[in-house]
Design brief:
By secondary structure, the protein is mainly α. 53% of the residues lie in helices and 8% in strands. It folds into 3 domains: 2-47, no CATH class; 60-150, Orthogonal Bundle (DNA polymerase, domain 1), CATH 1.10.150.130; 166-320, Orthogonal Bundle (hpI Integrase, Chain A), CATH 1.10.443.10. The chain contains 15 helices and 6 strands.
């Protein structure tokens, strides 16, 4: 490891993992160059020099492009992640990774909040940036720090308790276009997310066992959902009219993937005709969950059907299951009844009472 002068600048030269590495010190002062070289020696020994260099050289565009190509494409909410990437790029531009600081991220949060964006949307966008930085740090070795980890998420208050009544469902199905009718029925009877439905292929459908399998869920885990006769009829209709151009269960007439925004537009038009207010596509999933809880299905099974990673996410439906509370109270009564009967039963003559 040594110094050599090229023009007016001192350059460092050293071997690393069998390769000759040359780096400019950026100075023509030999003493300063020697001090820089000494610092670099320490960073190399500690394994920090090249990681820092990557963060100084890699850009945000490189980070987000690689994340979009290698990871966002695998997720069920791909379109939402790509939208988040567009919003992030619009604000940050294309700085070097080491220029992305917690303060700059807080500025992004404030700007989005000022623009009227909901806290949940801001959190999803920050989650995308956080995942990208985690990959850059752990797998790609582009940086040693994730600045998003030092920024607090927005407090969300987006819990909805909106579901369709049976009468509203009938009005909606009368108003919805034939093109979307089966998709709406499918969502109401499976509780699957829109992204999961649009990504469903015939490889995930078993008409004999009456199940559908979600290979790409929101949390990355696979789950299998049993289907009722209503869904079975939908799938048989779709199978009879399936396209040879795609393996997707729900697709356009051209055999391409359906666009989520077009589905929402069609649903909103039907909701206006049916005079149903304050309802979104995701509320079809809430409707499914609410109905099966009201029918007496326990929350653990509901959690598995919905694919919730945490039982806390399913707990929001607990108030729809009052009979579960009644069972708990009646269990005390049954126990007290047994205790009372035992206490009142006479002990046969000649037998000792059991000791305590």
């Amino acid at each position: 490891m040594g110094l050599s002068k090229r023009g007016n600048t001192w350059w460092m030269s050293f071997m690393y993992r069998g390769q000759q590495i040359r780096r400019s010190t950026g100075t023509g002062d030999k003493r300063l160059a020697e001090a820089i070289l000494s610092k670099v020696k320490v960073q190399i020994v500690e394994g920090r020099f090249f990681e820092k260099r990557e963060a100084q050289e890699r850009t945000l565009a490189e980070l987000l492009d690689r994340y979009a190509g290698e990871h966002a494409a695998r997720r069920a909410n791909q379109r939402r992640e790509l939208t988040s990437i567009q919003n992030l790029t619009r604000f940050f531009g294309n700085p070097k990774l080491d220029h992305i600081t917690p303060k700059l991220i807080v500025d992004y949060k404030n700007k989005r909040y000022t623009d009227g964006v909901k806290p949940a949307t801001i959190n999803r966008e920050l989650a995308t940036l956080k995942k990208a930085f985690n990959l850059a740090r752990r797998e790609w070795e582009w940086c040693t720090d994730n600045p998003v980890c030092r920024v607090s998420m927005e407090r969300e208050n987006n819990t909805r308790d909106r579901w369709l009544t049976i009468e509203e469902e009938q009005r909606l199905l009368q108003a919805i276009s034939l093109r979307l009718r089966d998709l709406i029925i499918f969502a109401l009877n499976t509780g699957m997310r829109m992204g999961e439905i649009l990504a469903l292929t015939w490889a995930g459908v078993d008409l004999f066992r009456r199940t559908v399998t979600v290979f790409r869920s929101k949390n990355g885990e696979r789950r299998t959902i049993p289907i009722n006769s209503i869904v079975l009829d939908v799938l048989r209709r779709k199978y009879a009219a399936r396209s040879r151009m795609t393996d997707l269960v729900f697709h356009s007439q051209a055999g391409t993937a359906l666009d989520g925004s077009n589905i929402r537009h069609g649903l909103n038009a039907a909701l206006r005709v049916a005079k149903i207010q304050d309802f979104h596509f995701h509320d079809l999933r809430h409707t499914f969950a609410t109905r099966i809880v009201q029918a007496g299905v326990d929350l653990y099974k509901v959690q598995r059907l919905l694919g919730h990673k945490s039982p806390m996410m399913t707990q929001r439906y607990a108030h729809h299951y009052p009979e579960s509370l009644r069972e708990g109270v009646e269990a005390l009564e049954r126990g007290r009844s047994v205790s009372t009967k035992l206490a009142q039963s006479p002990v046969p003559f000649g037998e000792a009472s059991p000791s305590c």
